[in-house]
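=== RUN LOG ===
request id: a7f3
mode: sequence -> structure
chains: 1
length: 450
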Amino acid sequence: MNTSALKEYIQTNKQDFLDQLFTLLRQRSISTQNDGIEECAGLLKGMMEELGIETKIISTAGHPVVYGELIKDPEAFTLLIYGHYDVQPPEPYDAWESPPFEPQIRNGKIYARGVGDNKGQLMAQLFGVKSYLDTVGELPINIKFVFEGEEEKGSTNLAAFVEEHKDMLQADLVYTSDGPSHNSSSPLVLLGVRGMLSIQFDAKGADRDNHSGNTGNIVPNPAWKLIELMHTMRDADGHVKIEGFYDAIRPFTAYEEQLLTKLPFDKKSLGEKIGYPALSMDGPSYYQKMTGEPTFNIFGMESGYTGEGTKTIIPSTARLKMDIRLVVDQDPNDIFEKIQKHVQTYAPDVEVTYLGSMQPSRTKAELPIVQKVISAVENAYQTDPLIQPSMGGSLPDYVWTGILGLPSIIVPYANFDQHNHSPNENLDVDYFLNGINCTAHVIHTLGSSK
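=== RESULT ===
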């Protein structure tokens, strides 16, 4: 592959690539609200067909999957590229500097809902394929594409889709571009994800709100009930006290631990980027906690009155919601059962509701195919990429490693400060173009592997 010709081609077609991306960004596709999903799937299908990809829309029990393939030879190496075309809701609108579905470029960054997560990275994959075809002539491998419309609501039906279409999805490797790059701006190769369990706790006191003076010390306060329950579940140092919570965790291998030590860490810079300048931990602790340990996070609580001024009541109800990030080999269903058992012991009248889950996943860093992709990323960026055994967030990676039994690699194409899920989501134009270049290098390197 002529790398100079590839770079020249990408620069020459830069405006066309941006125009097509902007078309996709203007199309709403909010999965949790079923807003524009069918239209976006149809638009994406048309774009893929224009690139010569044989494409179809496949129904699921929820939102459809856009599936495409370019088959060179059934016996050739097959790469499966995964992404998602759905986006998060844009609210609050007034926090956006420009309308979320009217993409704009400011200071070298594209601003729009979904540009980083995941439409910009998805389109970089497609344009990487096109760039390779137009500069080399033909693909050296088979490529399959799975773009789902439910990732932002937990990929509810992706596992069933994969189970149903195992034969169609047979491949040698799954390749995903999602999430942010490393905060140091170095290219990043991720070999796994944390899983997630979302649950809800409901506590009840009296049948109605009560006067906090007339019935204080008499009517129980359900907010205190939930707070006291939380203290039985987690200590002040963050250690989860639920029996068996840590039992199934698979430790890092010696090689994976070595990879963690090579990751750069600038406490001051990172603290500023995440909006927490008081960050005090060191590098090894940071990466261990982010990639190798589960979390026990409260993401919302509601009870009583929180408006202006005061309202002196004892609330009748209280609700608390948690997302618990899990690491290999923790099972969300097992953890949920352990939490139910704990609540039954300490607060049996609190109702526990399962809201959703996703399995954790990890691919061995030592695999030869992993090393192939690492070399491709290195060639694309002309620098050694950082290798991380897992990302802190969650993706439905387990459907590939668990159901299909395939190695799976994630190479983010978005800048660290992409503000995904937040107002002013953005994607640096150079990151977008570099992602196109990187995809072409991965294709070339995988084609040379057999």
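=== NOTES ===
The chain has 13 helices and 19 strands.
Residues 115-136 form the longest helix (22 residues).
=== END ===
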